[in-house]
Structure formats: C-alpha cells, structure tokens
C-alpha cells in the first residue's frame, strides 16, 4: 500500500444496501401479561393536580418541623435532620436545615451550657451533622458530659 492511499476500503452504493438473501431468525416472545394498558392509559389531569397538592402539603409539614423552636430536647431535631438527609430530600430544605443546626449550635456552645448525652449515637450524630455543615466543633470530650 502506498502512503497516499487509505487503509480502509471504500463503501460503494450498491454494497451499502442490505442483502435480501440473508434471513435472520425471528424471536417468538410470549405476549405480555400487562397487555397494552400502559401504552393507552393517559392519567387524568386531576390525578397530577392532587399529587402536587399532597407534595406541597407534606413539604410544608416538614418545613414546619424543621423551623419549630427547640424546647429543651434537640435530639428530635438532630434525628429529623438526619432522616431528611438520608431520604435524599434535603435539597428542598437547605435553608431550614442550616437554621436548625445554627440554632442547635448556638444553644449547645453557650459558656454555661454543657451538653449532656446519654448515648454515643446522639453524640456522633451531633459531631457528624456539625462537621458536615462546616461548624467548628471540638473533638475534645471535656466539652461534653457523658
């Protein structure tokens, strides 16, 4: 082969057509048990509207729980924030989660306030959520009363 020629063969118009002499085996699949229901079913507009209304109601309910004031026990709110994050819907409530964690951080880091933890789960959840959201929290156990 010379340097100026291409290494591949040219495709001619008559060779690009499918060869009618080649037969391919046909698969004989059983008919589906669902029939054509999903091909012909069109949801009504009221189904979509009620779903969107229900979603908005549930989002507002979660939002209210996140922004509710902390009384004495912030373990519920820590667990709730963790649950919302694990469910993968925290992107809807980023501002509310930041406010809730800021409120917990300010309450728990007062000079006179010592956090008392009865179990390691809440302590580790507190560390993880604070560090995950960029709050400077010391790992020294002298700050916490276990």
Automatic annotation (TrEMBL):
<protein>
    <recommendedName>
        <fullName>Terpene synthase N-terminal domain-containing protein</fullName>
    </recommendedName>
</protein>
<dbReference type="GO" id="GO:0010333">
    <property type="term" value="F:terpene synthase activity"/>
</dbReference>
<dbReference type="InterPro" id="IPR036965">
    <property type="entry name" value="Terpene_synth_N_sf"/>
</dbReference>
<dbReference type="InterPro" id="IPR050148">
    <property type="entry name" value="Terpene_synthase-like"/>
</dbReference>
<dbReference type="Pfam" id="PF01397">
    <property type="entry name" value="Terpene_synth"/>
</dbReference>
<dbReference type="GO" id="GO:0016114">
    <property type="term" value="P:terpenoid biosynthetic process"/>
</dbReference>
<dbReference type="InterPro" id="IPR008930">
    <property type="entry name" value="Terpenoid_cyclase/PrenylTrfase"/>
</dbReference>
<feature type="domain" description="Terpene synthase N-terminal">
    <location>
        <begin position="33"/>
        <end position="140"/>
    </location>
</feature>
<dbReference type="InterPro" id="IPR008949">
    <property type="entry name" value="Isoprenoid_synthase_dom_sf"/>
</dbReference>
<keyword id="KW-0456">Lyase</keyword>
<dbReference type="InterPro" id="IPR001906">
    <property type="entry name" value="Terpene_synth_N"/>
</dbReference>
């Amino acid at each position: 082969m010379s340097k100026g020629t291409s290494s591949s063969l040219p495709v001619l118009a008559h060779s690009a057509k499918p060869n009618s002499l080649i037969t391919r085996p046909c698969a004989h699949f059983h008919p589906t048990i669902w029939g054509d229901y999903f091909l012909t079913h069109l949801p009504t507009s009221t189904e979509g509207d009620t779903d969107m209304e229900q979603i908005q109601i549930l989002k507002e309910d979660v939002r209210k729980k996140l922004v509710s004031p902390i009384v004495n026990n912030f373990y519920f709110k820590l667990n709730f924030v963790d649950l919302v994050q694990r469910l993968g819907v925290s992107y809807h409530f980023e501002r509310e989660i930041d406010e809730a964690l800021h409120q917990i951080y300010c309450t728990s880091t007062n000079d006179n306030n010592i956090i008392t933890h009865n179990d390691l789960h809440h302590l580790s959840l507190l560390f993880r959520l604070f560090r995950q959201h960029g709050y400077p929290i010391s790992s020294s156990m002298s700050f916490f009363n276990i």
